[in-house]
Amino acid sequence: MKYVEIVCDAGCADNVVALAEQLELSDCRVGPAADNDTLILRLLVSDDKLQPALDALQTLLGSQPTTHITVLPVEIALPAAAREEREQEDSASAAREALYAEVEKNTRLGANYLVLVLLSTAVAAIGLLKDDVAVVIGAMVIAPLLGPNLAFGLGTALGDAALMRKAALINLVGIGLVVVLAAGIGALRLFETSGTELLARTEVGVDSAVLALAAGAAAVLSLTTGLSSVLVGVMVAVALLPPAVVLGVMLGGGQWSLAAGAGLLLAVNLVCVNLACNVVFLIKGVSPRTWFERQRARRATLIYALTWVVTLLLLMLLIYLRQTLLG
Fold first, then answer.
1. Which end of the chain has less neighbouring CB within 10 Å, N or C?
2. Is the pLDDT assigned to residue 31 strictly greater than 80?
3. Are the CB atoms for 98 and 225 separated by under 8 Å?
4. 172 pLDDT exceeds 60?
5. What percent of the chain has pLDDT over 90?
6. Pairing state of beta strands 2-9 and 27-32?
7. Going from the N-terminus, what domains does the chain have, and what CATH number goes with each?
8. Shortest CA distance to 138 belongs to which of 122, 161, 154?
């Protein structure tokens, strides 16, 4: 459940109370504010009703410059909810504003992001070159490549071009930095590049696409349902970080054919992760508040989903041709 506190003009109290009754919210209390012109209303809202309540409140009070709405998590609410209500809350999605706040912070190109990219690349490169799976897993845990892809998918679902641009930029910078650093490591030729872990990331097929689709879908479900994203971060890192590192290592070592295989794998994984994000956000009903914005966002989602599907089909054709040429 969520605790919603509303500061608004005193004349709007009856409208807010009527709205709470209409939405069948759990509790609604009215209290005085610091002056006589404003009131504080407190609502106890279940997760499945939070987004409709916030949308209705913004529509009702959005034109008032003094209105302020705060949403806080509820650790305990007594008496406990009935079993049917708990089952509804288990299937509820996080509010649009909460999703945005969660992913927007992952589109900030700062020192922390760059350092995490550098560290995860170095750890992954060493693990791959030494055929050490445990080290590779460690790199997956610290890899920061999950956030930008989720942010781009959410930006598409909301029709937010600014968020999409920031997400695309930081994703490009992150993956580019991984490839450049790994190329430098590969150019040093300190290790053999014939290890199992390395060569496994130069082969791409349908199973690679399935893995990336599953990782992207799990990432969005984790975000929208409030589940822990640690394991999902590992899944997405499996799909994105290792092939990017192998691409760089092979480019640095001058092994162009193997680099092409790793590059195809990276491209397939990127397309599949973003396609899965689009589809799951669409199924979960994540959309803007107003009708016009919803129509525009839905059109953008369908266009990008179709673009990802076409791109994936082209990549699969390239993979087939490459496998045919290599015999």
1. C
2. no
3. no
4. yes
5. 17
6. unpaired
7. 2-90 (3.30.70.120), 96-326 (no CATH)
8. 122
